[in-house]
Amino acid sequence: MPRARNPKSGLVDTWGRQNRKFANRPCLECGQLFHPRHAKSKYCSRPCAWANNGGRNKKQECWWKNAKGYIEGRIWLSDGTQIRVKQHRFVMEGLLNRPLSPSEDVHHLDGNKANNDPANLVLIDHGTHSAQTNRRRKHPKGYRLKLTPAERKARSLRAIARQLWTYGHAALAKADGKERT
């Protein structure tokens, strides 16, 4: 995009367009010039804002409900790092005083993913949890197609033929001494 030939007075960007609301100002903490987003912006970044007020505007934890219905959030550790956790796992780790392994699941007894009361949570291994959850499902091994018996038989015959063709070609390639890719 070519630069504007006659830059207008006022707040213009590097291309000479007059599309700025607030003039650059120095950060109150580090002194660096920054482009403010709001009229009351005083700091160039969050670390500068936290450094100035001792971190009082830094929330210790922030929780929300994710797309699958679990309560998830960000928490600050004692070393100053921030991590993202699911609340039911965080509560269970607090009860056990140890971190959970990836093979351990936290089961909600009442089935309500938002109810993270310690009395409602049980620690079980992943295989047992999957078996319990799948038992309640209508079709534990996936979806079920609405096929007539004739269509179902035709599909299974096609699958058998496809497997035989694959095995036959592999056997022929092995007999010829070629490796099948």
Comma- or semicolon-separated keywords:
181 residues, alpha+beta, Homing Intron 3 (I-Ppo) Encoded Endonuclease, Chain A, 3 domains, three-stranded antiparallel sheet, two-stranded antiparallel sheet, 4 helices, 7 strands
Total strands: 7
Radius of gyration equals 31 Å
* Helix proportion: 25-40%
Per CATH, what is the topology of the largest domain?
Answer: Homing Intron 3 (I-Ppo) Encoded Endonuclease, Chain A
Low-confidence stretches: none
The top level CATH class name of the largest domain: Alpha Beta
Strand content: 15-25%
What structural class is derived from the secondary structure elements?
A: alpha+beta
Provide a count of the helices.
4
Q: On the 0-100 scale, what is the average pLDDT?
A: 82
Distance linking N and C termini: 51 Å
Characterize the largest beta sheet: strand count, sense, and whether it forms a barrel.
3 strands, antiparallel
Which word captures the global form? extended
Question: Please, how many domains?
Answer: 3
Could you give the order of the helices and strands? EEHEEEHEEHH
CATH architecture of the largest domain: Alpha-Beta Complex
Cross-sheet strand order for the largest sheet = 3-4-5
